[in-house]
Each structure stands twice: as C-alpha cells, then as structure tokens.
C-alpha cells in the first residue's frame, strides 16, 4: 500500500491531457484525460480532485472511482468522466507497475496476443482517398475509417451523397475495409438515404448515424439496414450505454476510455455489451496513454472486435503524433494483417518520456473544436 503523494496534469500538443500520479514510495502511474475541445473544463475538475485525493491509498482504485462518481451528487457527463478516466488509468498503471505485471494480468489475463486495428484517412474535407488508403495499406493496415460526408444541411441535395459512395468504392477496390463515420453531422432525412446508398458496397460499419440523443431514430434506421451500427464516443458511463443495448440499435460499441471513466468503467461496459451480443471497438483518436489503456481492456474482452488508433491522424498533422511522448514507439508498429502485438511490459506497457511531456506542456494551447457554417449562415453539426 502507498498513499497518493501528488497528482499532476499536462496539457500537450496536439490536443491531449496527461495525468501523472505519484505515491509516497515514488511509484508512478500515467493516465489520459483528453476531452477534445474542452481541456480547461477537465483541468478545473482535476484541480478539485487533486486537492481531495492526495493522501488516499493509491491501490484502492475502485474506492477512488466510486468516490468520484457517488459523492459528487452531479455525476457523469464528458467533463467529470474524462477527469475520472485520467485518475483511473494512472492508478491502474501505477499499481500494475508496482507489481511488475501488465494491467491485463490484473483484469483476469489476456484472451489474445494481437489485436486488429484501423486508422483514419482523410479529414473533414476528404480528398485523395486512394493515395491515403494506399499509404495505410503500406503501413500494414487492412481497415480504415473516413468521414462519410462533408457538412450537410438538415435536408440537402441527394447529389451531396454521391461522393461518399465513390470514396467507399475506392477503398474497397484496394482490397481494404472501411468504416464510414457519419459523425452525428447527418440528420435523419439524409442519414436514411446515405445508409441505403452505402449498403450495396458493404462498409465495415456506419458510425454515429445520428446524434446519440436521437435513440428512436437510430433504432428505426438500424431496422432498415444490414450495415452494422457503431456508436458510443458520446456515451460516458454504463448508464448512458444501457438504453442503446436495450433498444437493440447498436452492433458495435465505441465507448472512449478517456471519456467514460477509464479502464474500470470500460471493462464493465464491455462485459455488459457482451450480454447483448454487441462487439467492442473502443473509440480512440487520442494519445498513446489512452490507446495503451484501451489495449489492456481489449486484450481481456471476449467481444473485442477492432481498435481505433490515431497514428498519423489529420489532427496530428505538423504536431506531435502517437509515437511522441513514449520511449518505446515501436509498440505502435502495425504487423501483417493489420494487427498490433499486445504489449507485455509492466503497467500500460509504454514508457512515458516525462522530459518531453514537461517540455511540450509549457505554454501549450488548448485545442478548439472546429465548426461548420452553412451557406445561409446557419450552424451545422461538426
């Protein structure tokens, strides 16, 4: 046992927030509390919790998790749960490293030695899809994800959907699979048409076909397409996930470990999803700590399907990448068939370069979420 001596956080490029916990014996754990576009809000929550949890037993991860959840009165939501994720992941890393084992050993042991992964191509205005997909193929990936559309009006011209089909066809012609991310930017009148147009070309999945607040619409859409429905990045706890499982409208659950309370909650959500025959494919266009944490849960989950990773994602262009901040970036090398080998080092299995983290965190700016404005001056979903 060892009491928490310090909790620090570091805002680092391109848009990540790392957390470091040190116990009184000098044991260290790293977590990630990144919440894209809302860094300052998470930092404010961490400030309050840092003051509160200094002196708590670092080994008592579940006790600290439940304290954050049950004594806050107001609970859940992206800010609280991202801050909690930062603490939770760091505590698991600290405990496992102290014991000299990977986190997956503390979660019951691995079910697999390698994990299927996919990467992004294109940005918010995708172009040169063939070139980007070929580059991913050379890296070892067999599956990619791209935005299904540019910004759309509530009711737009059906012609606006033609490029989506063409881009999916381009990737399929290379012998690769592609997930199509609607990103919640497509409203019901267009989502129905887009799903129907994509279906003959067999996308890997369609992601966030509607915003999560429209569960009835998502259920209706799921009943009219054979394409797997994927969602979950804006669901922040098992209580948020439950109605989607009960409605039978999700096939692939994409909860984000950095937004849902960390390793502890993702493991519970994975088990919950398994009882509904729903696959686990954690959302993770984030940093190396979040990805390493996802992999620890993926390795122990029977219903794990595929893992998103942010290697070379457009947000990282000209900035730090997934290989930054770690001293063993080779763990992110994609192997033949589109797999990552399971890390078996202690804790998260990555070695954080603290000197690099501290240097890059100096005067780091908080990332601001972009937005779309339509031709009439109206605000569109990003």
UniProtKB/TrEMBL annotation:
Cited Pfam families: MR_MLE_C, MR_MLE_N
Cofactor(s) required for function per UniProt: Mg(2+)
Annotated InterPro entries: DgoD-like (IPR034593), Enolase-like_C_sf (IPR036849), Enolase-like_N (IPR029017), Enolase_C-like (IPR029065), Galactonate_deHydtase (IPR023592), Mandel_Rmase/mucon_lact_enz_CS (IPR018110), Mandelate_racemase_C (IPR013342), Mandelate_racemase_N_dom (IPR013341)
GO molecular function: galactonate dehydratase activity; metal ion binding
Gene3D superfamilies: Enolase-like C-terminal domain, Enolase-like, N-terminal domain
UniProt key word Magnesium: yes
Annotated ranges, domain Mandelate racemase/muconate lactonizing enzyme C-terminal: 126-228
Entry keyword set: Lyase, Magnesium, Metal-binding
Signal sequence, renumbered to the chain: none
GO biological process, one term: amino acid catabolic process
NCBIfam families associated with the record: PRK14017.1 (NF010624)
The protein's name: Mandelate racemase/muconate lactonizing enzyme C-terminal domain-containing protein
Organism: Periconia digitata
């Amino acid at each position: 046992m060892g009491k928490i001596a310090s909790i620090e956080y570091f805002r680092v490029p391109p848009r990540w927030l790392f957390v470091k916990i040190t116990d009184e014996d000098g044991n260290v754990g790293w977590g990630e509390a990144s919440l894209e576009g809302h860094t300052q809000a998470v930092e404010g929550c961490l400030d309050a919790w840092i003051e509160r949890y200094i002196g708590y037993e670092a080994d008592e991860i579940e006790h600290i998790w439940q304290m954050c959840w049950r004594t806050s009165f107001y609970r859940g939501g992206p800010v609280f749960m991202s801050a909690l994720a930062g603490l939770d992941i760091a505590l698991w890393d600290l405990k496992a490293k102290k014991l000299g084992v990977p986190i997956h050993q503390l979660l019951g042991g691995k079910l697999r030695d390698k994990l299927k992964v996919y990467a992004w191509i294109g940005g918010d205005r995708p172009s040169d899809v063939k070139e980007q997909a070929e580059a991913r193929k050379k890296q070892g990936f067999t599956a990619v994800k791209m935005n299904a559309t540019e910004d759309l009006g509530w009711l737009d011209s059906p012609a606006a959907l033609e490029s989506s089909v063409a881009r999916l066809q381009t990737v399929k012609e290379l012998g690769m699979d592609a997930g199509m991310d609607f990103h919640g930017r497509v409203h019901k009148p267009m989502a129905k048409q887009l799903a129907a147009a994509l279906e003959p070309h067999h996308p890997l999945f369609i992601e966030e076909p509607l915003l999560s607040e429209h569960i009835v619409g998502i259920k209706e859409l799921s009943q009219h397409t054979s394409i797997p429905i994927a969602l979950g990045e804006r669901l922040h706890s098992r209580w948020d996930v439950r109605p989607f499982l009960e409605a039978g409208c999700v096939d692939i659950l994409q909860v984000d470990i950095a937004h849902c309370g960390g390793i502890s909650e993702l493991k519970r959500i994975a088990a919950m999803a398994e009882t509904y025959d729903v696959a686990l494919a954690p959302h993770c266009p984030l940093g190396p700590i979040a990805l390493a944490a996802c992999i620890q849960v993926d390795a122990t989950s029977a219903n794990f399907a595929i893992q998103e990773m942010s290697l070379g994602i457009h947000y990282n262009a000209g900035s730090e990448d997934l290989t930054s901040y770690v001293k063993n970036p080779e763990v992110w090398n994609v192997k033949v068939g589109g797999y990552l080998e399971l890390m078996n080092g202690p804790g998260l299995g990555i070695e954080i370069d603290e000197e690099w983290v501290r240097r890059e965190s100096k005067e780091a700016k908080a990332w601001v979420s972009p937005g779309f404005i339509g031709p009439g001056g109206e605000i569109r979903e990003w």
